[in-house]
Fold each of these.
Amino acid sequence: MYEMDKDELLEAAARLTPQWLAGFFDGEGWVSAYKANSSYQVTVGVGQADPRILSLVALRFGVGISERSTKGHIHYNLRLHGKMALPFLHFIKDHVICKRRQVEAAIKMAGEMRHTSGGSGGLTDSEIALRAELAETIRRANHEICTKANSQSGKESFR
């Protein structure tokens, strides 16, 4: 765990509600569906420059965080793959706003996962088709969010 005094730790832990985490995820998180070994997989993640909150989230869901340096800046990521993403997704699903379609599709896709090693071996044609359809839903929803953000970046925001 990273340096936090007791009061900061208690305050941050108390704020780790489904509503707060859903808002945090809407702003800093992502859902990714990708093809690996002839089948689609799903990854959910949250990135942040400050590792303290990510550390609390990682502790809550029993995962670790990764660190990388880009152009001299350190960035931290929490990533959940396949079925490992389900507890996190179910925790935020009723409160996420901007990425609701991605979260719903990721829950369906992760719930369909029977293999942790990837690949389509043993999957029926309908399971493969469902994963491809859910991956396309995630891709489209991600594209729409990026398109909206880019089109609104030049507009004055309400304050």
Amino acid sequence: MIFAYLMVAVLIGIIIGGELWKKPVSLLSPVSTAYAYDGIPTPTMGWTGLRHEIEKYIRTKFGKDGELAIKVAKCESGLKPDAYNLNEGKSLDRGIFMINAKYHPEVTSECAFNARCNIDATYRMYVAQGYSFMPAWKWSKPCWEK
């Protein structure tokens, strides 16, 4: 099983030009992503503590739209900083808000897999789209619009 995870990590590293290896990304457990929130989570914090800190930061960053932003992130990744999805077109969605590497090359993988940086980058996109999650997050809208 660990071998399968390592093979996926190698594949992702090749697809995104090796950026994944600038910082270690655990694909095994959110508990082991101690670096993923700029020093806030630790291995002893566990998933519940990490999730709470991520939600708190999203609420602070997005203000009145904080709860909607949390819904979007839950639909996209389950709030997991190390989430990823390889799309059929071979583009890669990365991190909490699943920022696409092809359409947002300005967001490095190091940033995309870092919770705070991913949230900050998403907020910039949200503002640029007129304080809206459309069109960038249109595919998950049926989930987060509920």
